[in-house]
Amino acid sequence: MSVKIGFAPTRRSIFSAPAAVEYAGYTREKLNEMGVDYVDITDISEDGLLHDDGDREKIAQKFKAAGVDGLFVPHTNFGTEYEVARLAKELNVPVLLWGPRDERPDKNGVRLRDSQCGLFATGKVLRRFQVPFTYLCNCNLSDEAFERGIRLFLAVCNTVKAFRRTRILQIGPRPFDFWSTMCNEGELLEKFNIQLAPVPIAELTQEMKKVKADREQLASIVAYCRENFKISVSDTELENVAALKGAISALAKKYGCNAGCIQCWNALQDEIGIMPCAANSILNEEGFPVACETDIHGAITSVLVEAAAMNARRSFFADWTVRHPDNENGELLQHCGPWPKSCLNCKPEICYPLAFDYPGAVAGEAKHGGMTLCRFDGDNGKYSLLLGNAKGIDGPYTKGTYVWVEVKNWKRLEAKIVEGPYIHHCVGIHEDVVPVLYEACKYLGITPDLYDPVEEEVKAYIRGE
């Protein structure tokens, strides 16, 4: 998923217009060097800067037509704060404020730009307009903080775009015993424009029959399985795995979905004779996250974390399960096998699960190293995002896809999960996307809930420290 931003550098008339034009040019050069996809305004504004209301209306039209995902407003001198606010309000996309460090006053005491002062003014006016924004502190284009801030903002834009466009393929109702995974479909639509596409199991089985009838498609998926997995199930069972994968892909395309969730048990196994884990694993590897036990909020979490990583890594859907036997801050993350192969440290095996008599699970340990753990959830009309960091550690072997992780303070995290609004499910990804998710929350109407007391550190990173 590519990210395109609107580039609208701004100035105010009482400061040096040539200096503002000069620094806007330098900023364009830096964005070009970084390979940023941006829409410029040089064909609208005579000096390529935002400060005129007539230009602002044309700029808004151009940015909308281009489908920009974010708005970048460098203050190349003081800036015209009300034009920035009007444009940002109309576009309703994430906004990044930044201005270059002002140079030394000349020998006569004249200052050319006062960019920092203009940022103070714009921040206040955006608040009046009730427009959320991201702020990258006053720095030079050559500073590491600038490039880092732009990259982070692009990831925030990607996360917001993915969340606002989410449509979940819901295969079957939640299992009766899983009251914890119930959700409010109407509220998700009303609050966040998140849509569900409910599909009964009978429709899934009909699609599986179509895949089985297409012997070429079926053989291609089976071949993929044999190449990428150890196979400990029969040929017929493996064909069922392949048919299920093909059927879910077809349904996702039919209903325009970017993630899914599936009932998993027990009616599903009775109908198709397999666990869905291996099919889910393949779909997850392809970038179509599928959550277990019809966990709609879990599927939404997967969309968020993968978008925060710019869709460059795959996530894994897990249960918080048991404490580490030897590490007070260790915990087992495990599930029957939906994890994508790129998350694992070995060639995974399609096999039988721990707790069921049907084939189609996957076994393998995930890679260690740093990761982000996350959970979008809500109840009683309020939604939040539990998030923080962990690292993979050694621990006893267990069935399914699994990894033992260590956090700073397990008891603090455990209490957050129990006291809610969270449940026993989370999503992990082998990348630190905590700052991106934290910042994205302000645009999504979600409360960020850090399970470690690191909020000031996260804010410092975002503002460029």
Layout of helices and strands:
Layout: E1 5-7, H1 17-34, E2 38-39, H2 53-66, E3 70-74, H3 81-91, E4 95-98, H4 115-128, E5 134-135, H5 144-164, E6 167-171, H6 185-192, E7 195-199, H7 201-213, H8 215-228, E8 230-231, H9 235-255, E9 259-262, H10 267-272, H11 277-285, E10 290-291, H12 296-308, E11 315-323, E12 330-335, E13 349-351, E14 361-365, E15 369-379, E16 382-393, E17 401-406, H13 410-419, E18 425-429, H14 434-444, E19 447-450, H15 455-462
Helix pairs in contact: 2-3, 3-4, 5-12, 5-14, 7-9, 8-9, 9-11, 14-15
The biggest sheet, with number of strands, parallel, antiparallel or mixed sense and barrel status, is:
6 strands, antiparallel, barrel
User: Which percent range describes the beta-strand content?
Assistant: 15-25%
Mean pLDDT: 94
Going across the major beta sheet, what is the strand order? 11-12-17-16-15-18
Distance between the termini: 28 Å
Radius of gyration: 25 Å
Task: Name the CATH superfamily classification of the largest domain.
Answer: L-fucose Isomerase, Chain A, domain 2
Structural class: alpha/beta
For this structure, the CATH topology of the largest domain is L-fucose Isomerase, Chain A, domain 2
Second-tier CATH architecture of the largest domain: 3-Layer(aba) Sandwich
How many structural domains does the protein architecture include? 2
By DSSP (H or I, 4+ residues per run), the number of helices equals 15
Under the CATH scheme, which class of the largest domain? Alpha Beta
- Report helical residue fraction: 40-55%
Identify low-pLDDT runs.
none
